Amino acid sequence: RRELQEAHAHILRFQETKDRADTNMAWQTYYKVFQKIQKQVAGLSHLDMQSVSPKLLHDRCLQLAVPGSYTPDSDNAVVTINRFSPSIEVVASKHRPRILQMLGSDGKSYQFLLKGHEDLKQDERVMQLFGLINNLLERHSEAAKMYLSITCFAVVPLSANSGLIEWVPRCDTLHSLIKMYRESRYVQLSVEYQLMRSMCSRCEELSLLQKVE
């Protein structure tokens, strides 16, 4: 707080003197505060719902279905949101998504991954495609005997760059599997990069699809 007050004092002084040195000092102070906040945020593993959204924390018995649980043609009762968990887990990944937990009207707990900086509309379309494939497999007599199906999970876009993904327990991400493989065999990232360079000297200029191929 003291640093912010000092920066504000420099801004007020600049309005009187028009001395650029005051604005430079203010920006340097603001940047130091930003670095401190960024360091603290990077170390967070949990957030309090009271600080993030007090309204969601205190809401009870909402007339809103648990995301992904409502199907128009189903005879089952609609599972609504009873309340939200007071704690939000922060996932240690690039965009640091949050795990949001809610209690349904059926007494069960539901977990969702709250993702930002990403458009989930394509993910939603993929899940719809998988659902269509499952319907075709159910109608195919031979496939039905083998119980063939694709595991689907709810994807709910909330905006153009955020959304909810149903949390699937007891699963590993592709990133974690690759990381475990590297660590178990002591494979360094530089080795993979050198292999890529041996196949294509200008691999940095390739598109993502070309790199995968």
Would you give an account of this structure?
With about 210 residues, this protein is α+β, with helices and mostly antiparallel strands. The chain folds into 3 domains: about 1-45; about 45-165, Phosphatidylinositol 3-kinase Catalytic Subunit, Chain A, domain 4; about 175-210, no CATH class. The chain is built from 9 helices and 7 strands, in the order ααβααββββααββααα. Strands 1, 2, 3, 4, 5, 6 and 7 form a 7-stranded antiparallel beta sheet that branches. The longest helix is centred in the N-terminal third of the chain and has 23 residues, at about 20-40. It is flat.
Which features would summarize this protein structure in a list?
Kinase-like_dom_sf, FRB_dom, 213 residues, Phosphatidylinositol 3-kinase Catalytic Subunit, Chain A, domain 4, protein serine/threonine kinase activity, 46% helix, 3 domains
Task: Please give a quick description of this structure.
This protein is of the alpha+beta class and 213 residues long. The protein contains nine helices and seven strands, in the order ααβααββββααββααα.
